[in-house]
Amino acid sequence: MNYLEFEKPLAEIEGKAEELRAMARSNKGMDVDKEAAGLDRKAQSLLGDLYKNLTPWQKCQVARHPDRPHCKDYIDALFTEYTPLAGDRNFADDHAIMGGLARLNDRPVMVIGHEKGHDTQSRIERNFGMARPEGYRKAIRLMNLADRFGVPVVTLIDTPGAYPGKGAEERGQSEAIARSTEQCLRLGVPLVSVVIGEGGSGGAVAFATANRVAMLEHSIYSVISPEGCASILWKDAEKMKEAAEALRLTAQDLHKLGVIDRIIAESVGGAQRDRVSTMRSVGLCIDDILKQLAPMSRKDLVRDRRAKFLNMGQAGLAA
Amino acid sequence: MNWISNYVRPKINSLFSRREVPENLWTKCPECGTMLFHRELAENLNVCTNCDHHMAISARDRLRTLFDNGVFAEVEVPQPIQDPLNFRDQKKYPERLKSAQRETGEKEAMLVAEGEIGRTPVVAAVQDFGFMGGSMSMYVGNAIIAAAERAVKRKRPLILFSAAGGARMQEGILSLMQMPRTTIAVDMLKEAGLPYIVVLTHPTTGGVTASYAMLGDVQIAEPNALICFAGPRVIEQTIREKLPEGFQRAEYLLDHGMLDRVTHRKHLKDELVTIVRMLLGLSPAVKGDLPAPELTPAALPASTPDAAEGK
Hints:
Chain A is of the alpha/beta class. Chain A is built from 14 helices and eight strands. In chain A, strands 1, 2, 3, 4, 5, 6, 7 and 8 form an eight-stranded mixed sheet that branches. Chain A starts with 7 loop residues before the first helix and ends in a 9-residue tail after the last helix. By secondary structure, chain B is α/β, with parallel strands linked by helices. Chain B has two domains: 32 residues, no CATH class; 230 residues, Alpha-Beta Complex (2-enoyl-CoA Hydratase, Chain A, domain 1), CATH 3.90.226.10. Chain B has twelve helices and nine strands. The N and C termini of chain B lie far apart (80 Å). Classes of the chains: A alpha/beta, B alpha/beta.
């Protein structure tokens, strides 16, 4: 288990419980059950307290937690017959973006998402979930394919942002993002997006210009990372806590602002502590939204998406 | 004390101080260091007469120099809610807005206008880098939507001049949401079969480049304009290597196939007229100074729009 900074007191208690149990295992006849169970209860209640009122900065840390389920985990858990489709037909296949045909409860869908990787090797291969222009162009191609065959599109958002690299710029990163957003808006099939971790700026919006956008309870979605914002507006990257606060990047604030449609609850202690049930909740949410959108005509789906974004920003947060 | 200090010096001093001397009479070209007289610089559209460096030009001056005889009508932009996030960094957001308004004399970072260029009716939207770095706010999004709607309603092309440091961070996610919103505006023009021409000026970066500024039917940039998504500093920090000369500048993008043209500011208007008229199937424009339009409608032999267009 990877503990976050604010989870340190929890780490101590759980560590003690683990120690006790280890001792009992090596010394037969030693009875620690009662004591260990007491520590477990204490840990559980502390966990509840910690996660009840996470600050925006703590939410950023949870959203980036390495043990949170990532795109690949969701695809493995929720979809069947996943058939990856690769390449942008121009330059390369971007491994930061997963995508392909799959079934969700037997219904064919096109699933596309950012994959961050889970260890050093896979993280490097996935470029930490930061897409290059090829990734957006692959997504455009897959969305277009889905559109022509009436297959709904599901996108899973989890990226620090677009990759700030030399080649990415030379190959038209900006244009690729703009076209991907444009493709989202033109789809005559339902488009559902779920922010499962980090929704980083243009790299996220290029896939999340959807009919319905849902966010996991402890995920974030922002125009800029708190660190980036702090270094620009506070001239001090260490002010990321203040920036995280000011940016209103939590699912709860974004729901109030009318930017997202649903919040998917995570179990106590976050998705990283109960991956299976979190993934199940995400699956149920996607399924429910797809059912809701199913009766809509192609025209209505485009109109619905346009109206949603054109009307956005009418509601502010009360002081 | 002699007559020089008593008489001549005051006389000389008064000679020089008599006229109200406006400040910033001279501008130093940041590229070549030439001192440029303000009138000369304005006449040359804020381009250095020595080295052709394109300096910033205010949104309003851009409109004045774009439209025939500097005549245009502003298009009203719906006002969004102010400070939706109650944002505060070292300063409160409304204070930053107010000081930008004081400095520029403008309401926000984009102006929308309609008028004629080379007797060709167009709608133009100009982003003002002087106003909080031209950053993309809800107002800017509304301005682009208003510009597109007006263009569609009047069946006119839209010419957009971009200039921005990126998103308006003080509007957080709602700034980001202007990417899809402005993309919808561009789609409205495409559906209506109207040309959408983007002129990218220095600098155009971030979410602005990654939405409406890269979706033009024709993409023109001013010389040496910085055009990018991630800025050169961020990239250098990430990849830890020196970037090539001219990286992310207009000419570099042209070489990499990201732009149609890089055009000197003094040729820009003619070029826009030429392109727009060809796309609209109109006759070639009459080059050179046109006589002022007749004021009395009776003086016009035919008052149909087609005749006026020379069809």
